[in-house]
Amino acid sequence: MTDDAYLFLADGSVTHLGAPLALVGDLECLETPAVRGWLDAHGVTPASTALRLLPPEETGSIPEEAEKLPVPLSEEELIRLRHALAPGALARVEDELLAYRDCAGERDALLHRAVAAGVPPHRIVQLTGEEPETVASVAARAAGR
Question: Record's superkingdom (predicted)?
Fold first, then answer.
């Protein structure tokens, strides 16, 4: 896994993969000479529907033959990207997990809802700052183990 997100060109078989830049919004990396040069070399603009973006934890799913470029994203840009990729209910639960960082109330109930909604444990750890063991314990209880 890398710490960089990836821009890549999606062919017709992987248009479901990643987020189009229009859903993510403005990204600082798009102003860099490296990204502008890569876009020019492939004859695409940031508005192209073939141009997709994936967060670091998802880059392994990019097909080997795809044209791709690692790009650094700020934490806020990563959050926007992940929200663009998440279905509505999942995005709402992730919003709650982000708000959780600033409050201490109802931790177990929120973690349980996140697990029940299908948020992966590693993502819950990222969003909440909780220890992986704590999240694993809640996930195990939610699964009835």
Answer: Bacteria
